[in-house]
Amino acid sequence: MKKFKIAVIPGDGIGNEVMAEGIKILDTFAAIKGDISFEYQYFPWGCEYYLKTGNMMDANGLKVLKEFDAILLGAVGDPSVPDHVSLHGLLLKIRQGFNQYINLRPIKLLPGAPCPLKDKGPKDIDFVVIRENVEGEYAGVGGIRFPDMPEEIAIQTGVFTRKNTEKVMDYAFKLAQKRNKFNKVTNVTKSNALNYSMVFWDKIFKEIAEGYQDIKTETNHVDAVSMYFLQRPETYDVLVASNLFGDIITDLGAALQGGLGFAASGNLNLEKEYPSMFEPVHGSAPDIKDKGIANPIAMIWTAKMMLDFLLEDPDTEAIIEAITGVLLEGKTLTPDLKGNAKTHEVGDAVCQKLKMLL
Ligand code: ATP
Ligand code: MG
Q: Which segments constitute the Isopropylmalate dehydrogenase-like domain (predicted)?
């Protein structure tokens, strides 16, 4: 019996509501397999915690989390807490503190999911964005000079280290080999304008590509990528992007795959020196919280990504098949998908399908 210790941070708003469905799919999967089990410990951290204590998470939070095999996060955010407080107080602290240098974002349109591009379908939208996740434009380096004066200056510096950039790019190439789709990696850059950071980025990309003669490469500026995502998404396989550019294009990707209800992500420390963290891309969605109508598919997909990181088991693909089954059937869908089902009903329906598949 393989036992995994999972730290669960449900967070705020719908984060809390969809988390139950993520746990449900994990337990269903474990029950079917019989040889794995999960032990969960819940942490009440997030904006509600901040409003009570003045901290997004406990001061020794990282020390406590370090003992777990993985972290599952719902969402954090609250209209009364500034976004940069919640982001830096929890999410970035964990990503950077645990050196989760890879942000893994599958952009895959499932059959039955709504795509805003009417001439594109599931076979056209199936690629992965690897986003650098701990440094770059989000390194937190900079400052304000002459605050509130007419001469006020804000400085935000990008930090790109050779070691980290090499590791991120190397992972992109390895993933292209593993996917074996087009055996192609697209370098997302802006080296025409950013003459230090992105020129360096391109240089490392070329160096790493040398070691992967079997993988084709292309280099697109980030503005062009945004256009090509809409015009010809079918040409992509694996893309590698810096923290900021990756952030932006993966939201565009989320739209292509049916919206935030479908966008799942992993923050990975490949060496497993620290736990990795898995979270749906959506936020706490205060407009629909406490109604029990949030779409749990992104969370369920996220749980599947966690399984893939913890174990090598091709059966996890059945979770995606189960989601697809529910979508195609069209009977149990949340209001964002024009249905009238509750969050937990969608979770139950996916688990039911999974039991039939495995
Ligand atoms: P936060 O400040 O925590 O990021 P937000 O207001 O930005 O919250 P998001 O969750 O990022 O909200 O998403 C924006 C909108 O998309 C939500 O207000 C909600 O209407 C919709 N949405 C997001 N996720 C879901 C979901 N899982 N199910 C249904 N609707 C969703
Ligand atoms: Mg948001």
A: 5-350
Tens digits of per-residue pLDDT, 268-307?
A: 999 999 999 999 999 999 999 999 999 999 999 999 999 9
If you take atom 6 of ligand 1, which residue's CA is the nearest one? 285
ipTM: 0.94
The full set of domain ranges for the chain reads 1-110+258-358, 116-256
C-alpha 160 to ligand 2 mean position (Å): 26
Say yes or no: CB of residue 341 within 6 Å of ligand 1. no
Q: Which numeric CATH code is attached to 116-256?
A: 3.40.718.10
Tell which atom from ligand 1 comes closest to the C-alpha of 286.
Answer: 6
Please state which architecture CATH assigns to domain 1-110+258-358.
Answer: 3-Layer(aba) Sandwich (3.40)
Cα of 297 vs centre of ligand 1, distance in Å, is 13
Count other C-beta atoms under 10 Å from residue 102's C-beta.
24
